[in-house]
């Protein structure tokens, strides 16, 4: 992942040259190729300068328009190598620190005690980690398909392709008419799917850090169905307590017993009625 960089303020002379050129009709695309700035930034610069000129009733060539605006381009207080190492050491000191999100570490004041020249922002903290080779990586794992399974899946998809030869020929199966069902477990008190840990590309996870993404224990189970461009019905099954399981089994046994008695009454009656009918009438 590329390192994030702080916003860079152009020198006043460069801004004046760019605005003057754009006012004279030079295209932003050609200017972007000459200057170390994107075309979108040039467009914003030109619009912002015109607004300031109209508000202050100054011509576009007035030098006051290109001075650093309040709140923009504040001089950055650089950290020393020792201070950056201290930040990295805190962020990687244990499992809890590695898995903590950047905004949470800043909010908790994890770096306030190391006497930095200014309080770290989320982007500054992440830049330090990225420059040191760290990234937010997922320690979880789940079973993947092997090459043979991937080939079988591809072959099946090709054989059932709705458009076998050209777009819209309709010679394959129409998957838009298929109703798909799926389920997902939920566990109370856990973060699922987005858990990341600060680690380097060549780092290895301790066995107690890695966790399977597919687990059997859950607090509830969500079942749903869907088709093309349409959401279907769903149902949420909660985790049953031993008492709830006992009551459910008792209710099911009672229902089965009632159905059995009903069948015992209806079956002889139906057989007797069929016996009185002739073969042609029965059919």
Keywords:
single chain; 283 residues; 3-stranded antiparallel sheet; alpha+beta; nucleic acid binding; 10 helices; two-stranded antiparallel sheet
What do these coordinates show?
- The protein has 283 residues and is an alpha+beta fold.
- It has four domains: 12-66; 81-132; 147-238, no CATH class; 250-282.
- The protein has ten helices and five strands.
- The protein has helices at 12-23, 28-34, 39-56, 81-91, 95-99, 102-107, 122-131, 147-159, 242-276, 279-282, and strands at 134-137, 180-186, 197-200, 220-227, 230-238.
- Strands 2-4-5 form a three-stranded antiparallel sheet, with no helix packed on it.
- Strand 4 and strand 5 form a beta hairpin.
- It starts with 11 loop residues before the first helix and ends with a helix.
Gyration radius, to the nearest Å?
A: 34 Å
Provide mean pLDDT, rounded: 77
Span between termini: 74 Å
Strand content: 5-15%
Q: Order of SSEs, N→C?
A: HHHHHHHEHEEEEHH
Total of helices: 10
Structural shape: elongated
- Outline the biggest β-sheet: 3 strands, antiparallel
How many structural units, i.e. domains?
Answer: 4
| Residue windows where pLDDT falls under 50 for at least 5 positions | 1-6
Organism: Bimuria novae-zelandiae CBS 107.79
Biased composition (Basic and acidic residues): 243-258
GO molecular function, one term: nucleic acid binding
InterPro entries: RNaseH_sf (IPR036397)
